[in-house]
Specification:
Length: about 280
């Protein structure tokens, strides 16, 4: 089902918030870097059993950037928590893809009294800031900052990084090239630079102390979201379930279907559609 967005003001940033407004189990589900609510819909099947809340993070989707700086995973997590507060959602399953997974992990660690469970889809971060797999985002951001967009795109498309991605992770390359086409490319480059050099602000010891049901989903043929990172997180979080799904680069439809099925199975098994309010 589609949720019509509302607008929440945070400082001077107008953020689009999608809330299905029904369902016994609240699920906060956040998109990846440069993504939006449509990306969430690809990965999560809305159901009458779940109330799904998604905030389009600053300068992403239909949300404004605002003047607040620096952009950070902490800032985005605080925005999400404010949206949950405004919606009257006290406890929820924290979920997300890539950057959204880092936001979810931060929420679970910093606000254990609010988080019922954790779903991390294709995580790009474990615990360290500025992981090497996020370096291509910083590279794209630097080019956008320093050159006219057409020149920047051509420079990246002919770079050593692009050659590697073209061979080993074509789906990642398509996403990276798409950033040069964004209407807000300049401000989004600020977001990319900041987030690529950031981290969830969660230590491995803190993750080992999590006491909620967790699911980690990973896939191969992905240089930005290494399968090894997903496995590492699943091992670090006590009793976390792990699911490996078909890579997007192999079969996108099958990939999304398997992600949706894995999440639905996890939520049904661990929460049994009970009222969690």
């Amino acid at each position: 089902m589609d949720a019509a967005p509302t607008v929440m003001l945070r400082d001077d940033a107008a953020l689009r918030v999608f809330d299905t407004g029904q369902g016994r189990l609240p699920v906060v589900f956040q998109h990846g870097l440069g993504g939006d609510a449509a990306q969430v819909a690809q990965n999560f099947s809305d159901s009458p059993s779940y109330r799904r809340l998604t905030v389009e993070c600053r300068a992403q989707g239909g949300s404004g950037a605002g003047r607040g700086r620096p952009f950070s995973i902490a800032m985005f997590a605080d925005d999400v928590l404010a949206a949950a507060d405004a919606a009257g959602i006290d406890r929820f399953v924290a979920s997300g893809i890539s950057m959204g997974a880092a936001i979810a992990l931060r929420l679970a660690s910093r606000y254990p009294d609010r988080v019922l469970g954790l779903v991390l889809v294709r995580p790009a971060w474990a615990f360290d800031a500025a992981p090497q797999n996020m370096r291509p985002y910083a590279e794209v951001a630097e080019l956008i900052r320093d050159r006219p967009l057409d020149d920047a795109r051509n420079a990246f498309a002919t770079s050593v990084t692009a050659a590697r991605f073209r061979k080993e992770a074509p789906d990642n390359l398509a996403s990276l090239l798409g950033f040069f086409e964004r209407d807000n490319a300049a401000v989004f480059a600020e977001v990319m630079q900041a987030i690529a050099n950031d981290g969830p602000g969660v230590t491995q010891a803190a993750a080992a102390g999590l006491k909620v049901p967790a699911l980690v989903i990973g896939s191969g043929i992905d240089l930005v979201h290494p399968l090894a990172t997903a496995r590492f997180l699943a091992d670090a979080i006590p009793n976390a379930a792990f699911a490996e799904v078909t890579p997007k680069a192999t079969d996108k439809d099958r990939h999304f279907a398997e992600v949706r099925a894995s999440i639905a199975g996890f939520l049904d098994d661990r929460f049994n559609n009970q009222d969690q309010s």
